[in-house]
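Can you make up a protein sequence with its backbone structure tokens?

===
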Amino acid sequence: MYEEQSFEAIMERQLDRIPVELDKRQGSIIYDALAPAAWELTLLYGELERQVKLKFAAESAGEDLDKAVAWSGIKRKTATKAQFLGIFEDNSHAPFDVPIGSRFSISSLNYKVTEKLAEGQFKLECETAGAAGNEVFGSLLPLDYIAGMAYAQLSQLLLPGEDEESDEQLLERYQDKISRPITSGNRYQYEQWAREVNGVSKAKAFPLWNGPGTVKVALLGSDMQAPPSAVVDAVQSYIDPSQDGMGEGVAPIGAVATIVGAVEVPIHVEVDVTLASGAVLSQVKAQLELGLREYLKTLAFADPLVRYTRIANVILDIPPIIDYTNLTVNGGTGNMEIDPGAVAILGTVTVNE
């Protein structure tokens, strides 16, 4: 809108107002007196251009995007903390109860005991929010001495931590809300409700799935796979905790909602490849697995067809692979159709040279 308001254009307009008999050349007193003001006006027009764009969510980022979508009621999901199952034993390998609030460390991350689940079994929460705390397992070191404890193990991820919602994810939720007829408990509103819960990336609603008044909502996590049961339970509690049509959640009275994780369909790939000189088969396999995962993520709740030719393209896009033969996908050489409410995930990948 203000692109034409350059330093040169502003200076030209100013100098045009100066009588021709006066020296207006660059380096003259008049030119040098006007130039700083012209430069400041150029910066001002640039800021005006930026402010105009900030009115549109697609042109915004960070806090500006938060403000641009605020009118719709959509807020950016904050980072959450990973929760784990911790196992504790004494010297005789008997279950050992540690105090609630005890803090432990592993691999530069700290974890705090928040809840007792059973004898010697406790829920621990990572003190660092985000996905960084999801991948650490093993022996725990107590930050404070606990008499009688001989063994402490971080054994199972109960609820993954989530990073703060990205601009791309927030914008996608916003565009879904304003572009779809989300109202009165229709199918799109159930999907929106589900995606408001941390740990849910996509959702698909199935009206009347078990008769009148029923709706099923299938969920995907941030990794485009079925989310943990704790996330499913959280969505169930938010939408319809009692499942009796009494409207105890956000679902309208009379509706019975059932929340489930997407059914995972493993995609097994086997292929013979011809590699470039010096290529390492194990590294090529790792690259292939990464490429296949990224391809399958693009299909999640968007395209029900896993295409044989697209998998072939992923193979040929890996630089060390010169050619391939005998490609099979789940034992066949054709496309695979994924049922509604299911998601294709990578199974086994076998690469033969």
In short: The mean pLDDT is 92.
